[in-house]
Amino acid sequence: MSHDFPSYRGHMEYRCLGCGTRRPGDSLLYTCPDCGGVFLLENTDFAALKEHDGQYWRDLFDARLSTRTTALRGVFTYYDLLAPIFDEEDIVYLGEAHTPVVDASPALQARVGIPFAYKNDGQNPSASFKDRGMACAFSCLKWLCRSNSWDEVLTVCASTGDTSAAAALYAAYVGSPLKSVVLLPHGKVTPQQLAQPLGSGATVLELPGVFDDCMKVVEILAENYRVALLNSKNAWRILGQESFAYETAQWYGWDVSNLCLFVPVGNAGNITAIMNGFLKMLDLGIITSLPRIFGVQSEHADPVYRYYSAPAETRVWEPVTVRPSVAQAAMIGNPVSFPRVRELAERFIQTGGERAFQVVQVTEQQIMDAMIQANRHGHIVCTQGGETLAGLMNARALGLVGEGERAVLDSTAHQLKFSGFQNMYFSNTFPPEYGVRPDPSLANMPELVLPESEREGKSVAEFAKLGARAVADRLKLAGK
Predict the structure, then answer these.
(1) Helical H runs in 284-356?
(2) β-sheet bridge partners, residue 297
(3) Cα–Cα dist 461/113, whole Å
(4) What is each CA distance from 387 to 35, 84, 270, 448, in whole angstroms?
(5) For 261, which DSSP code?
């Protein structure tokens, strides 16, 4: 099959999930001007893709994995399913997507009781899954700037860390006419995450409060000024995150039967994108059945869990006030993408049955224990990856996942972004509001085997002998 850039072009429109209004996709729109609802982006010419059968698309996407065409190497390997309106020169690629699916170690799988794997989205360029959406959003911005001859566009986002890192990185790469500004909740972002947008040259502004407060400020800016909002309200960004679904299906040979995906909910954009991606593949015959999707939320930020844990006839959407959470990217009490979740979950359940979409709740203690446990078994799991493992274990305990099923857990960022929480766990210094205490069997701290005074006045050779003896005694080594 050809590796040339596709000639097919679709027609993208925003569809409001509140009032159903449709608007052209070639504009900076984030919420419906009529009712304030959020948008889904849809290709109104999607039916034209059905001229080819599922096997055609499977073969095409498999062939593209070996392409040297840069614009088809990232999320746009699946160009036809995402945003088939850009030209090759518009596509931004920084090495994102096609992150590895790594089987859990045999010992960890035995502990959990079913086969499962991590999809390590921390191995994206800015070390989180947000790069998937930014590749699409910034490709859109390049396209709009070229089409409209814009000489300056300010990109802005609210963030708990990962969004700002990705937005600043892609803005720095594209350069003029784009400039990057990020708003962070003061004191609520790890030092590692703060360092990223600063290093990329973004203007970093901090506000008191939590993410939800920063998000409200960004929404007002987007409504009243010409800025490019890069949070989950940006439907182009959500579109790029569908690639997680396409890659997962491709990795398993396009057979997702008996597959359960566990996804942190957070602002609800990622789980939305993943569901939409699977529904598109099913519509084109690329897959023949849907996997099961499990959203996971901490009890410290669980509005989506509360909604779906109620009987269907009594469900009422209510935001919650968040409490401190180690899963910082998921510490959101009023996710802007909830209307998308509600619509896509309904479609998922209609097609795949009542068990196709569920939400499970976990504790902060379970998140940290699971993260440490996973990394003790050779993984590079962030706190959100700990959240999904805790979600799988709770789902198993509740009988929601059984024998014969397998799971893929979304680890949304790199372990090193959250090393501070690991250090607090090992040193038992978590503030009481987190409700986390270390499991002694998992705690790990360095040991000083000789006092500093033992180094003084000794040659390297003398100290080496003394040090070797101390290490051998500590490890109870037998001589040769």
Answers:
(1) 303-309, 338-352
(2) 361
(3) 51
(4) 35, 34, 15, 33
(5) E
Interior/surface letters 344-355, b for 16+ CB within 10 angstroms, e for the rest = bbeebbeebeee
**Distance of CA 380 to CAs 33, 267, 412, 417, Å?**
43, 23, 11, 11
- Could you tell me the two tokens for 219? 């929404």
Query: Which tokens is 290 given?
Result: 């849907």
- CA 418 → CA 139, 198, 340, 434, distances in Å? 29, 18, 29, 15
Determine phi and psi for 11, rounding to 5 degrees.
Answer: -140, 115
Residue 80 tokens read as 């036809």
Beta-strand runs (E) in 17-145? 22-24, 39-43, 101-103, 116-120
Say how many C-beta atoms besides its own lie within 10 A of residue 299's C-beta: 18
Strands 101-103 and 227-229: what pairing?
Answer: unpaired
Give per-residue pLDDT as tens, 196-236: 999 999 999 999 988 788 888 988 888 888 889 998 889 99
pTM of the model: 0.94
3-state secondary structure of 152: coil
Per DSSP (E only), the strands in 45-151 are 101-103, 116-120
Q: What does the radius of gyration of the chain's CA atoms come to, in whole angstroms?
A: 24
Q: What's the CA angle centered on 194, arms 189 and 272, to 5 degrees?
A: 65
Q: Which of 257, 249, 262, 258 is nearest to 402 (CA)?
A: 258
Beta strands in 191-333 (DSSP E): 203-207, 227-229, 259-264, 292-298
Residue with tokens 């059905």: 50
How far from the centroid of its chain's Cα atoms is residue 258's Cα? 22
For the segment 336-385, what is each residue's pLDDT rounded down to a tens digit? 899 999 999 999 999 999 999 999 999 999 999 999 999 999 999 999 99
Question: Which of 185, 219, 167 has its CA nearest to residue 336?
Answer: 219
Q: Residue 440: is the preceding peptide bond cis (ω within 30°)?
A: no
The count of residues in the chain is 480
Please give the angle made by the CA atoms of 47, 48 and 49, to the nearest 5 degrees.
90
Q: Which residue has the tokens 């609520």?
A: 188
Report d(CA 237, CA 92) in Å as an integer: 13
Residues 421, 331: Cα–Cα separation, whole Å: 15
